[in-house]
């Protein structure tokens, strides 16, 4: 540089001051560290606030914020002189005169003047602003990096598709192991083929026009080949001196699948919404808490009302429910708010004016922070009709129950809950209130005789759910009156607890009285019939008996007359001795007939009046029967009839009256002979049983018809009068036999078949009595006696 030129042509001071930087020169000869500044241009004053005088006074080093730093600077300058002898740029912090901290850049060099004096030239620049700016920029960059790194989105910086930067989330979303896997690679290979063209266009637009492109949804492929749904926005940005693109990618795969599920759910809900049987409405609730127009209505609602959805969108609840006004709706809303929902009945009016009864369930709900009333409306036309029919039928039933001539009660467990009028009359109370909730046991009690029946009835009720119709006597506790009831109890069906009973009662006291009367009447009329019958029998008997009495007496009388005649006219009519004997025998037999008849009559009378007694002795029954049978064998065989006696045992001792047994046997055998033609057979058998003896008398005679078999033991009965006329008899014999068997505690039965024969069976119980002297049988006497007995018992048989 030609300084002479500068000295000659340019004012040096002006030159120094016009430099856009600080210039300061000081000489090294000055005593360290108090060197004097020789040049201090105005820029230096501007930077530091100090004039040359002020700085020389203070010392140059003192403007450094750290004094030591200033001293070091100076020292450096001195030392550097020998080291590099030239320039060295440094940054220092200084404090201006005003106390402001500034950063200056210092460029120092040593120059020698002509007199070889060494001077330090210092060029100073205030770089405070740049430094702050740089720092701010660095902070911004740091912040940006942090944001990018912590961003929940993947962030790529690419230059025309070539990736320069990628944050952690980018690595994660695109499944890269390390940044090198993506940085330096083309973005295209991660774009789904369907979106490649769109993406290219977007890159082109952002790069050329340097603008942002709007957010779009696209699909990408990760490093591992998975397809992901992403949301991408991109903007142009200069980065490290290049025109780059910032791409923000958000993984929305999950959201997409959720949306899909939601869409599916909504579709399902829609389907349900439109396919339920009930009408569904949605009304938005305004700030006053009142429902506004219908915002939604399902198909059922539209079909039922005949309005389209659009039409409903401008209608409010009273438009379709004409009987509900706004005031009522406001009341409903208060309840719904309190309870969450409200079920009520209303009437819906269709577009063509038809009224439909409905049951509405209104629910308060919140959708997207808005309040709605959801109303589910069910058509209850059928139910209403049923209810009406039910009411009608209930009315009819009530009428029926009230008009029934029965007492009808309903018991709730054991307490009266209902009674009809007749029922109240039975209890002798004027109104239901008098008996309601009273236990039935406080009102009625079963009569002593019916307590068992009552108990059984209740048991059956619980077992089967109902009782049969029973008659019972109950006591009305109110007045102790005994009532005859006909009762039936049924457990009421359809009751939850199953402990309700329906009792239907009929007072049959009158019927019972009538029945009693009727019974007495029939008893009396039976007695009357019996008396009449008895009377007829008696008349018949007396007619018969007179005949029976007259016949032997006539025979005796006529025989006597004959004998008498003979005696008076001994010469004229002489009877032979044989004839004489025969006449005597006829008279004797007829006397026996009379005796037999009289005996039987006396015995019957004795039995009837209770004066007939048995003379019981322990006798061998086999002997008694055998003896009497054998003693008449001859008589019978003379009649051309065979008689056979047979016994299973030889001895069986039992308590009996041998005389009466003989009469029984003789009677039966005489009947057998009477009704058996010559050539027939009679069997007398004794059958031995464990506790009894059975004596049978069997014949092969005419037999007795079945219908007559029972009667023959009755007194005065003769089976066939026309027949018996030929065979004499009074009809007393068998009745006497039966009485005698009865007195022996035995039984008599008959087996017989007409024209084949009859079999009489007598069963006598085997027991003993205390022995008396009478029990010793005098056999001889008995034989004598037997002859008489046989004569008497066989007196009506003509040999
Ligand atoms: P009666 O003294 O008239 O014989 P019974 O009481 O002995 O009276 O008998 C009643 C009736 O029973 C007889 O009249 C007869 O009709 C019938 N009867 C009794 N025994 C026999 C018999 N062995 N075979 C057929 N009929 C008989």
Q: Give me the side-by-side strand order of the main sheet.
A: 17-16-21-20-19-18
Major pleated sheet: 6 strands, antiparallel
Mean pLDDT: 84
Assembly state of the chains shown: single chain
Bound molecules: adenosine-5'-diphosphate
| Low-pLDDT ranges | 82-87, 722-727, 773-781
| Beta strand % | 25-35%
- What Rg is obtained from the alpha carbons, in whole angstroms? 75 Å
Helix content: 40-55%
Class per helix and strand makeup: alpha+beta
| N-C termini distance | 212 Å
Shape: rod-shaped
Number of helices: 23
**SS elements, strand count:** 28
Describe the structure.
- This protein has 23 helices and 28 strands.
- Strand 16 and strand 17 form a beta hairpin.
- The protein has 799 residues and is of the alpha+beta class.
- It has a six-stranded antiparallel beta sheet with strand order 17-16-21-20-19-18, sandwiched between helices.
- The model is unreliable at 82-87, 722-727 and 773-781 (pLDDT under 50).
- Helices cover 43% and strands 27% of the residues.
- Bound molecules: adenosine-5'-diphosphate.
- Adenosine-5'-diphosphate binds at residues 671-672, 675, 699, 701-702, 704, 712, 717-720, 724, 729-735, 758.
Give the gist of this structure.
By secondary structure, this protein is of the alpha+beta class.
List the helices and strands and how they pair.
Elements: H1 3-9, H2 12-18, E1 22-27, E2 37-40, H3 42-48, H4 52-58, H5 67-83, E3 88-95, E4 101-112, E5 118-126, H6 128-150, E6 154-159, E7 162-166, H7 168-173, H8 196-209, E8 213-221, E9 227-239, E10 242-251, H9 253-275, E11 279-285, E12 291-297, H10 299-305, H11 309-312, H12 317-320, H13 326-339, E13 341-349, E14 355-367, E15 370-379, H14 381-403, E16 407-412, E17 415-419, H15 421-427, E18 444-446, H16 451-464, E19 470-476, E20 481-491, E21 500-507, H17 509-568, H18 577-609, E22 617-620, H19 621-638, E23 642-647, E24 653-656, H20 658-674, E25 681-688, E26 692-699, H21 721-726, H22 733-743, E27 747-753, E28 757-765, H23 779-793
Parallel strand pairs: 23-25
Antiparallel strand pairs: 1-2, 1-5, 3-4, 4-5, 6-7, 6-10, 8-9, 9-10, 11-12, 11-15, 13-14, 14-15, 16-17, 16-21, 18-19, 19-20, 20-21, 22-24, 25-26, 26-28, 27-28
Helix pairs in contact: 17-18, 19-20, 20-22, 20-23
The structure holds adenosine-5'-diphosphate (ADP).
Adenosine-5'-diphosphate binds at residues 671-672, 675, 699, 701-702, 704, 712, 717-720, 724, 729-735, 758.
